Amino acid sequence: MRAVIQRVTKASVTVGGEQLSSIGRGLCVLLGISVDDTPTDAEYMVRKILNLRLFEDESGRAWSRSVMDQDLEVLCVSQFTLQCILKGNKPDFHSAMPAELAQNFYSSILENMRSTYKPERIKDGEFGAFMQVHIQNDGPVTIELTSPTGPTDPRQLSKQEKQQQRKEKTRHKGPSESGRDKGGPRSKQDPNASSGAEGDVSSERES
């Protein structure tokens, strides 16, 4: 599964000239689901999206607070085009999960986000519709997130995350400290592991 996460001052989804959803400050998440995705991928994505520290704290310190910490909103939009594989110059979307499966899978992700956070803070577009997504990026800040490939056992995934967190802490230390930390084996991610959900999206930035 792949997500493109943007920190926004506002964002909205319009279908056929009618605005379906809008948020103020928070996150706009373009989410794609692949044929290989499982509930484990969905749980990983929900946890990361809601806990990414993309906002400043009360004293203005950057990268300190998550959307949940700041009680902000999230606008999710299904976007199967994130699963694109180019064949020459022509996009191919066969790796995207078929619409009849992806719709229920996508709905379960939204339900998970709402039960983990606050239902009224999670907005979405219209699955399978041709949408206009208006995004006012704040920063700009854009994060690409891909669910890990490899072991699907929750204990193994937890071990991978802990190893990654240790490496991130090491990078924030001084040169002498980080030099002493040899770290564990690097968890691998498949750069081709992307996502899809049936539907089409065109994004229009506002100045």
Structure in words:
- The chain is of the alpha/beta class.
- It has a single domain, classed as 3-Layer(bba) Sandwich (D-tyrosyl-trna(Tyr) Deacylase, Chain: A).
- Helices cover 27% and strands 31% of the residues.
- It has helices spanning 39-51, 99-116, 154-172, 175-180; strands at 2-15, 18-23, 26-32, 73-78, 85-87, 90-92, 122-124, 130-146, 200-205.
- The strands form 2 sheets. Strands 1, 2, 3, 4, 7, 8 and 9 form a 7-stranded mixed β-sheet that branches. Strands 5-6 form a two-stranded antiparallel sheet.
- A hairpin with a 2-residue loop joins β1 (2-15) and β2 (18-23).
- α1 (39-51) crosses α2.
- The longest helix is centred in the C-terminal third of the chain and has 19 residues, at 154-172.
Give the SSE layout.
Elements: E1 2-15, E2 18-23, E3 26-32, H1 39-51, E4 73-78, E5 85-87, E6 90-92, H2 99-116, E7 122-124, E8 130-146, H3 154-172, H4 175-180, E9 200-205
Parallel strand pairs: 3-4, 4-7, 8-9
Antiparallel strand pairs: 1-2, 1-3, 1-8, 5-6
Helix pairs in contact: 1-2
CATH topology name? D-tyrosyl-trna(Tyr) Deacylase, Chain: A
Helix percentage range: 25-40%
Low-confidence stretches: 176-184, 186-207
Fraction in beta strands? 25-35%
Our Rg estimate from Cα atoms comes to 18 Å
Number of helix segments?
4
User: Main beta sheet, described?
Assistant: 7 strands, mixed
How many independent structural domains? 1
CATH superfamily: D-tyrosyl-tRNA(Tyr) deacylase
What is the CATH C level class, in words?
A: Alpha Beta
What's the total count of β strands? 9
Second CATH tier, the architecture: 3-Layer(bba) Sandwich
What structural category arises from helix and sheet content?
alpha/beta
- Tell me the distance between the termini: 30 Å
The helix/strand order is EEEHEEEHEEHHE
Bulk shape: globular
Average predicted local confidence, pLDDT: 82
